[in-house]
Amino acid sequence: MTDIRRPSATSRRSMLFGTAAASAALLAAGCTSNDSDDGGENTSADQAGVADDKPGKKVTVGFAGPQADHGWLNAITQQAKARAKKYEDVTLEATEGSNDNATQIGQIETLINKKVDVLVVLPADGKALTQVGLKAMRAGIPVVNLDRIFDSAQAYRCWIGGDNYGMGLNAGRFIGEQLKDKKGAKVVELAGQDNLELTRQRTQGFDDALKNYPNIKKVARQAAEFTVESGQEKMAQLLRAQSGFDALWNHDDDQGVGAERAIKQAGRDEFLMVGGAGSKRVMETIKGDKGVLKATVLYPPTMAASAIDLARALGQGKGVGGMAEFEIPASITLYSAVVTKENVDEYLPIGFT
């Protein structure tokens, strides 16, 4: 199997679901006292205030995301709400969520008018919501831009999100290592929505990884819509068009429900399947090891919990534990780990439903 570099089990847990002192590769641990040899003066990092779990200045965080009509998006909302409840000093003002740009803009403007201390925004459309992000920043409300990025860096204080290119890259590496000794290997791809930049990035990463395996050829690709229905329809088309192939990469575990239905209906099992995002259902299927599904590449919704950690730190004027800088980073990209039968038990606790 390829050496898909990933952190140790301990640091990985810190990245994905630790507390404010241990979360998303940024709030990993509060700085401990580090006495110097000349009488105990603290280092600059120790002098900076860093976020920890102890109650501090009260912070009201406004949260606005798309409608939770998809397993991953629902997990985003639940992660944010659950994280906020863990802090005595955080009050969360959450909108209902909407996929309509005008509605979401109105919801964010309401939060701005309420004078929340910090905003966490996962825009339905980053480009369309850039102006309201700028409006919040100009009003003195720092914005944590979650995943789908605004068009202007001036519209947010910090961005945190997944690595779409890395997701495709690691899916391609995993498949490549499984098939590296097979002459004339064929793979197919069930992508997401082609009008989204994230879909194009996932495909580019996948294609770039396969360039390292000259024995493998991608023979077909279909774009679905991140829904069960579209996954089933487009997978059925792939199966009819390709009489035989060795591996399938599906961009999204929700549309993968439909894809698996089509595979079962067609009675096909000659290939291995790799999913995307990291649903609990898929992880349990991988653990059972009774079908074509052998792995999934994470796009962790725990990023929403980390966004709340960041918002709290910003509202309290604190920095990030485990880092020398006084300020939180401007950009944080999460790692897309590959979940297999060998490591699935480590990741099951963060699988989403």
Automatic annotation (TrEMBL):
Q: Which Gene3D superfamilies match?
A: 3.40.50.2300
Cellular component annotations (GO), alphabetically ordered: cell envelope
Q: Name the InterPro entries for this protein.
A: Peripla_BP_I (IPR028082), SBP_2_dom (IPR025997), TAT_signal (IPR006311)
Alphabetic keyword roster? Signal
List the signal peptide residues. 1-28
User: Region labeled Disordered — which residues?
Assistant: 32-56
Question: Phosphoprotein: is it a keyword of this entry?
Answer: no
Q: Which GO terms describe its molecular function?
A: carbohydrate binding
Q: Where in the cell is it found?
A: Cell envelope
Ranges for domain Periplasmic binding protein: 61-318
Could you say which protein family the record assigns here? Answer: Belongs to the bacterial solute-binding protein 2 family.
| Name of the featured protein | Substrate-binding domain-containing protein
Q: Origin organism of this chain?
A: Streptomyces boncukensis
